[in-house]
Design a protein that fits this description.
The protein is about 30% helix and about 15% strand. By secondary structure, it is an alpha+beta fold. Strand 8 and strand 9 form a beta hairpin. Helix 4 crosses helix 6.
Length: about 725
């Protein structure tokens, strides 16, 4: 299909013009890029919105501070946890390593991989973690966090005895044992109330000294030897924004920052310290600024002050150092995260660098593995559409359009000794060329249109027949909708499960050298195809899906995947939380599922009889009275394979078969007297029971067929009551 270039503003205007309740042109255009009316595909070129005027201001700041020390260096009181909160364990990378001494060498270990827990907090947004490096190489504990047994031993043999030794009068407030404190903390509802104990800054050094003595003297605490601390102050960028015209400005701001964090004088000379130096760029005319994907290499070169070839190497999509964060489904705008490594760290010895924009803060809500608010698969498949999440997000986007632009930020993590000089030599021309500025109305409207199209699709799926909603292609579309909603305000997830999803719903390419700006992933692994050279490919500037079939009972992905990809079973279970069979059973009980094997149960459902032989006389006349059997819901899309037509029996023939089946079922279900060795009350053999007719039940000489039975002469009232009870 022919392609036509759109600016973001033109794309929004076209989508608005196509919006109609009479057809699906709006959803088709917004989600797949196909303009069904004009007969072409849209290519969205965001470079037309490049920042051409000198309409921006840059402000430097210090954001986060991380220090690794052997003692506590806080110049104020701390709040210490007798029982640490498991949710506050440092599990995600902070892009720093710590040397741990082995038998004959020092091994650099990522800090978050060393067993740890939150030891205390101080001031605002400041916390201390305690690390136990010997557990990192313990055969039983390798890859695990500090066990509850170890935490209990540290509290009972080291922490509480140290408090009792230093502050005998205050030790009475500390639980006598770890289990006693855990009992106190556990609420009736099962949740935990983690309390803290306040300690003065004047005893902190002595506390660590006594702790080390207790660890070395007490048996069973060998694993805790050589413990160390990290001091972390996060999210303080707004407090110390400053000019960077003169070195004195940056030095004064750094001194003020350290004072505000309330660390001990001279603490930066102890241990190892890193600081995040930030630069925020904002538009004076209120534009929404975004980083251009094509300019990552040049910006990184400017920030780290490294050679162009080195910058190209660490910003290549296949580089292990580089993560690209696509923004708002637009391939042309993206942030990035980079661990330069020793060969690319530059004169500032950068450990980490990131480019991002501030609009993501509107959805910041850490929960589980996500940092932003997310819609769940259960919500997307729920009975209420649009969901509260979608309605809330639409409202947020609508309000943001009136007063929220977005700023572009760059941050680099450097040793504190380099902090005064980092990000002080930035070329404004490079920053201007690497930024794209959108009008607020365009930036937020594009997100709203994408979300609205997805919401309508989920609503149409929910409104359709349930058995079609759980078809493979419909479920692929549902999963794609969830993925797209969550990618509106966060980087698109690209783990193994979502890579499988992308291959099932996205345009694909097997070109040997595809445009890297059109790729999200470069891994060519495949779980269900012998062709391992195929990649999801978004060459039209937006994360568009392949063909979607809207003109059906339920919207679903079209069957035009020439490579034969589908969501593999492991990925399906990760995305939906269950297997495909379990999901169908849960959402549509009428779907035939595999027989469950229950060892202590016998089969009680009668088999359907096949009545062969000569044509059976029908005993009903509902067809003459205008009744018919409704046609079942089927997916009759034009790309579906032909299926064998079901029997054309009319309603009378169907009911006749059901009636005969009922007569057989009654005979087959006749009980036996108590005692498994006795014969059934019915004298007929199994073969004879499968051939019974009304005559068996109409013969008043009961002894012909029955060994024993209860009987009753029914009145018309009894017959009417029986009919009422069964209808």
């Amino acid at each position: 299909m022919e392609s036509k270039t759109y600016s973001l503003q033109q794309f929004i205007a076209t989508a608005k013009a196509l919006d109609s309740e009479e057809n699906f042109n709006f959803q088709t255009f917004v989600l797949t890029g196909v303009n069904a009316v004009a007969g072409h595909r849209a290519f969205v070129d965001v470079t037309s919105d490049e920042l051409v005027d000198d309409d921006f201001t840059m402000a430097r700041d210090y954001d986060s501070l991380i220090g690794i020390t052997e003692t506590l260096v806080v110049d104020t009181h701390i709040c210490i946890y007798p029982i640490p909160n498991p949710s506050e364990v440092l599990r995600s990378t902070i892009h720093l390593k710590f040397p741990i001494e082995q038998e004959d060498h020092l091994e650099q270990v990522s800090i978050h991989k060393i067993p740890n827990y939150q030891f205390c907090t101080w001031s605002t947004r400041c916390q201390v973690h305690i690390f136990f490096p010997k557990l990192a190489f313990n055969a039983e504990n390798r890859g695990k966090q500090v066990s509850e047994e170890c935490r209990a031993a540290f509290y009972e043999k080291a922490l509480r005895p140290s408090i009792e030794q230093l502050l005998a009068g205050e030790a009475v407030d500390w639980a006598p044992s770890y289990s006693a404190e855990k009992f106190r903390a556990k609420k009736n509802a099962g949740t935990m109330s983690y309390q803290t104990k306040v300690l003065s800054q004047f005893v902190l050094c002595d506390l660590v000294t006594v702790l080390r003595e207790q660890v070395s003297e007490e048996p069973g605490l060998e694993w805790a030897e050589d413990f160390f601390f990290t001091h972390t102050a996060r999210g303080l960028k707004g407090a110390k924004r400053h000019s960077f015209a003169e070195e004195s400005d940056t030095a004064e701001a750094l001194s003020s920052f350290l004072d505000a964090v309330q660390l001990s004088p001279g603490c930066i000379d102890q241990g190892m310290w890193w600081i995040d130096v930030g630069m925020e760029v904002y538009s004076e005319s209120g534009l929404c600024l975004q980083w251009s994907t094509a300019w990552h290499c040049r910006v990184v070169q400017e920030i780290l002050e490294i050679e162009e070839s080195t910058a190209e190497r660490i910003t290549g999509l296949g580089s292990s150092k580089y993560e690209k964060d696509i923004c708002s489904h637009l391939m042309g705008v993206a942030g990035c995260r980079i661990e330069p490594g020793q060969q690319a760290e530059g004169p500032y010895e950068a450990a980490y660098l990131q480019l991002y924009t501030t609009d993501k803060a509107l959805m910041y809500c850490p929960e589980g593995s996500h940092h932003r608010k997310t819609i769940t698969m259960a919500e997307a498949m729920g009975p209420t559409q649009p969901t509260k999440f979608v309605e809330g997000l639409l409202s947020l986007l609508r309000e943001a359009m009136t007063c929220n632009s977005s700023n572009a930020r760059m941050e680099v993590r450097v040793p504190i000794s380099k902090a005064r000089h980092a990000l002080t030599q930035i070329d404004r021309d490079v920053i201007q060329q690497s930024l794209i500025g959108f009008k607020r109305s365009d930036w937020w409207n594009f997100r709203m249109q994408r979300l609205e199209a997805i919401s309508r699709t989920l609503l149409q799926q929910q409104s359709g027949p349930t058995n079609l909603c759980v078809g493979p292609n419909a479920l692929s579309l549902t999963a794609a909708c969830v993925w797209l909603v969550n990618a509106l305000h966060s980087r698109p997830e690209n783990d193994a499960a979502h890579r499988s999803l992308m291959r099932a719903v996205s345009p694909l390419t097997d070109a040997p050298n595809p445009d890297h700006h059109a790729l999200i992933v470069v891994s060519r692994d495949s779980s269900n195809s012998s062709d391992e050279s195929v990649l999801p490919y978004f060459a039209d500037g937006v994360i568009f899906l392949r063909e979607i079939r809207f003109q059906e009972h339920v919207p679903r992905m079209g069957i035009d995947n020439a490579y034969g990809y589908s969501i593999d079973s492991a990925s399906f279970k990760h995305l939906f939380g269950s297997t495909e069979e379990e999901l169908r059973y849960r959402y549509h009980r009428g779907v035939v599922s595999q027989t469950r094997v229950v060892t202590n149960k016998t089969r009680i459902t009668a088999n359907r009889m096949e009545f062969g032989g000569e044509e059976q006389e029908t005993i009903f006349d509902l067809a003459l009275r205008g009744f018919s059997i409704p046609r079942p819901d089927i997916d009759d899309g034009s790309d579906m394979e032909d299926v064998e037509e079901e029997s054309s029996d009319g309603i009378d023939a169907k009911l006749t078969k059901l009636w005969r089946q009922f007569l057989v079922d009654i005979a087959l279900k006749t009980p036996v007297p108590k005692g498994t060795s006795l014969d059934s009350y019915l004298k007929l053999t199994l073969a004879e029971r499968q051939e019974v007719t009304e005559e068996l039940y109409m013969d008043l000489c009961l002894s012909k067929a029955w060994r024993a039975c209860f009987w009753k002469l029914a009145t018309n009232a009894d017959r009417n009551l029986g009919v009422i009870r069964t209808t």
